[in-house]
Design a protein that fits this description.
Radius of gyration: 10 Å
Strand content: under 5%
Number of helices: 5
Number of strands: 0
Distance between the termini: 14 Å
Order of helices and strands: HHHHH
Structural class: mainly alpha
Shape: globular
Oligomer: single chain
Length: about 60
């Protein structure tokens, strides 16, 4: 998730409908992302949502 912090964080936060500070908190605590945010993030990155959920799951272990 830290890699995402380097990819236009203000633009991604705006696209997710959250402010920059909240986005950074969620990157540090990825379990706080909602399913809707995960789906929108996957659309922005042109990847499948399950890839993001797998990363989140791995970071929570």
């Amino acid at each position: 998730m830290y890699t995402l912090a380097e990819l236009y964080p203000t633009r991604i936060a705006k696209s997710l409908g959250i402010n920059y500070g909240r986005y950074m908190v969620k990157l540090n605590h990825p379990d706080k992302f909602t399913m809707g945010e995960i789906v929108r993030l996957a659309d922005l990155l042109d990847i499948e949502p399950d890839m993001i959920t797998k990363v989140i799951y791995a970071e929570l272990k």
